[in-house]
Design brief:
CATH superfamily: Uracil-DNA glycosylase-like domain
Mean pLDDT: 95
Number of helices: 6
Helix content: 25-40%
Largest sheet: 4 strands, parallel
Distance between the termini: 38 Å
CATH architecture: 3-Layer(aba) Sandwich
Radius of gyration: 14 Å
Number of strands: 7
Length: 155
């Protein structure tokens, strides 16, 4: 069992919560979300907002976003979502009730399936987007940007 080592990045102005499944090996080592340079998350955010990401946490909060993952702890081989077992989820319900979250974006199929398994009762708008992982080669960067543009529509 591996426990999620990262706190959510969120503040009292956060309106869009982006949920992944569980941090990769590199993200756990670097202690930051989407730390693997092969993951296109930060490139997508730069394209969506037409500005470079210099300080990742500052960027997220400046744009009233929040980052977290569905899973609090699990068994996983390397960074492979397909191997995830023994899931214990994060307290997303409490987070949504504590902060002004209006929209949840699910980053990838594993985040989507687990979210709907455990949190389908939440009364909030939820949009599933393709994974920004490099393993999701079927989606090019421009395709991902089109899907994630929705984050800018919540004011």
């Amino acid at each position: 069992m591996i426990t999620h080592p990262l706190k959510p990045i969120i503040d009292k102005k956060s309106k869009v919560l982006i949920l992944g499944s569980f941090p990769s090996v590199l993200s756990r080592k670097e202690m930051f979300y989407y730390a693997n340079p092969q993951n296109r998350f930060w490139k997508v955010m730069e394209a969506v907002y037409s500005e470079p990401v210099i300080e990742r946490e500052v960027f997220i909060l400046k744009h009233h976003l929040a980052l977290w993952d569905v899973i609090q702890s699990c068994s996983i081989e390397n960074s492979n979502d397909a191997t995830i077992q023994d899931v214990i989820v994060n307290d997303i319900e409490n987070l949504v009730h504590t902060y002004p979250i209006q929209l949840i974006i699910l980053n990838g199929k594993k985040a989507e399936s687990l979210f709907y398994e455990y949190f389908q009762h939440l009364k909030i708008q939820v949009i599933s987007c393709p994974s920004t992982s490099s393993a999701n080669a079927k989606f090019k960067l421009d395709d991902l940007v089109e899907h994630y543009k929705i984050v800018k529509e919540i004011k």
